[in-house]
Design a protein that fits this description.
There is one protein chain. The chain is built from three helices and seven strands; from the N terminus they run ββββαβββαα. It is of the alpha+beta class.
């Protein structure tokens, strides 16, 4: 079980996703929680490291448990998702090679995808926040 946090940030009906330098699939900005961190502290740190912006007023959205992308057979991710106001314009920094904004169908069309992100996008489409 890999415990992580993820940022769910939607603009104009699209979800912000990132791709790290050593992966092919896009996933949510975020990452593993350090031993001395709370989930909110981890989210703030990861957003700063990956997007170069501050995450203000994080609010827990939902927890997802799904097969972990790129972590080997049987690995599972336990991802607590948050929303937050971003101070500044997100840009790829640190380990992030690129970022993009996707609808559910655009994400599904990618050659490689992360299972948990499909679940997040399905929920966002159902709530009317992201376009199909």
């Amino acid at each position: 079980m890999i415990t992580v946090v993820g940022l769910v940030h939607v603009e104009a009906g699209r979800l912000l996703v990132v791709r790290s330098r050593n992966k092919k699939a896009f996933y949510l900005p975020g990452g593993k929680i350090e031993p001395d961190e709370t989930p909110v502290e981890a989210l703030r740190r990861e957003v700063s490291e990956e997007l170069g912006v501050e995450a203000r007023d994080p609010a827990e959205l939902k927890r997802y448990v799904a097969p972990a992308y790129g972590e080997g057979e049987g690995a599972v991710v336990d991802m607590t998702c948050f929303t937050a106001q971003l101070l500044g314009t997100p840009r790829p920094t640190g380990e992030i090679a690129e970022l993009t904004w996707v609808t559910r169908d655009e994400y599904r069309a990618h050659a490689e995808t992360a299972p948990a992100i499909h679940d997040v996008l399905d929920d966002l489409v159902a709530s009317g926040r992201v376009r199909p």
